[in-house]
């Protein structure tokens, strides 16, 4: 299942998930909304993938998404992952070397 592979990938990236990137993304996107929370998570994942490719572990590992943790069943978890995938593709552009995300269209 595609969502399961995505979830497993996010777990595998844990040591690369930067808390600094997460905090910057929370300031860039409205993390108090579901749309903003998915953009924050997508930013963390995008930066973690780049860090993984270079072998750069995060200085401080980002906390798990509170929004993702609130999902209590497979359907809700799948919906969350699909929203993160959409944000990754359509809302989050490049993540700068300093961790600052560039929203798409900004």
Automatic annotation (TrEMBL):
Any Pfam family the entry gives: DUF6545
Record-annotated DUF6545 domain positions: 7-89
InterPro entries: DUF6545
Protein name: DUF6545 domain-containing protein
